[in-house]
Amino acid sequence: MPRVGLMVTCLNDTLFPDTGKAVVTLLRRLGVDVGFPAAQTCCGQPMVNTGYFDEATPLVRNHLDAFAGYDAVIAPSGSCAGSVRHQHGLVAERSGDPGLVRAVADAPPVYELSEYLIDVLGTVDVGAYFPHRVTYHPTCHSLRMLGVGDRPTRLLTAVRGLTLLDLPGATECCGFGGTFAVKNAETSIAMGNDKARHVRETGAEVLVAGDNSCLMHVGGLLSRQRSGLRVMHLAEVLAQTEPVISDAGRAADRRSVGSAGVSA
């Protein structure tokens, strides 16, 4: 049985814990031994993106220590998975420490969730059930930095009961961009409103993505527009299963229906 470590990410840990729980539920259902190293912290992406490579070095070292001994690391975020895979090596080189460079090169591989499900487990149908109209937003880092391609939509297409609707302008950025949303708020909101409009045009009930940062941004706009749309992380959809009704439950339902008929 593969042993993987869940890199839950800062945003999920503090604001969206149900996403981390959904990843564990899903992977355990598929026979994966999932661990959660409590020593994990930020991957260092905010520092690197702002040019503070030296300040990110302790975070890279901590990541290596926290996930040592796992076969792989799974992140429900294309952004953070991309940071570890592409930025940790840059931070190590900048540090001038050959030992850190070797440690980064030898670290367990990091996968975005859809990559791990399809590329490593070889699974497209994860046994999920979600009877709703869904549209999918491919987040920038998952699309451009990781190249996850159609993996998330292949997984969604295999979900029983789910209707996947095409999103106009799908590959356009939603406008969040981390600190970009703070430093360039007006531009960020304008981009987010474009994305929200496209989402509403689909007629979907639920907007799904692989990064809660983007869902937080677009979801906030959809909420203010009183669109009635929900946003859900891919992991939360894939963790859903069809309710199992026991024989006793069916019998109780029949008695309830019968009683209602007598009362009427």
Please outline the helices and strands.
Blueprint: E1 3-6, H1 10-14, H2 17-29, E2 33-35, H3 45-49, H4 53-66, E3 72-75, H5 78-95, H6 98-106, E4 110-112, H7 113-120, E5 133-137, H8 140-146, H9 151-157, E6 163-165, H10 180-183, H11 185-201, E7 206-209, H12 212-224, E8 230-233, H13 234-238, H14 247-263
Parallel strand pairs: 1-2, 1-3, 3-4, 5-6, 5-7, 7-8
Describe the overall structure.
- InterPro entries: Cys_rich_dom (IPR004017).
- It holds the Pfam family CCG.
- The strands form 2 sheets. A 4-stranded parallel β-sheet has the order 2-1-3-4, with helices on both faces.
- Helix 4 crosses helix 5.
- Mean pLDDT is 92; it is low at 252-264.
- It folds into 2 domains: 3-120, Rossmann fold; 133-238, Rossmann fold.
- It is globular.
- Strand 7, helix 12 and strand 8 form a beta-alpha-beta unit.
- The chain has 264 residues and is an alpha/beta fold.
- The protein is built from 14 helices and 8 strands.
CATH level-3 fold name of the largest domain: Rossmann fold
Instruction: State mean pLDDT (0 to 100 scale).
Output: 92
Q: How many separate helices? A: 14
Class by alpha and beta content:
alpha/beta
Proportion of strand residues: 5-15%
Q: In total, how many domains does the architecture comprise?
A: 2
Which residues sit in consecutive blocks of at least 5 with pLDDT less than 50?
Answer: 252-264
The number of E-state strands comes to: 8
Text of the CATH class of the largest domain:
Alpha Beta
Per CATH, the architecture of the largest domain is: 3-Layer(aba) Sandwich
What assembly state would you assign to the polypeptide chains in this entry? Answer: single chain
Q: Rg to the nearest angstrom? A: 21 Å
Distance between the ends: 56 Å
Strand order of the largest sheet: 2-1-3-4
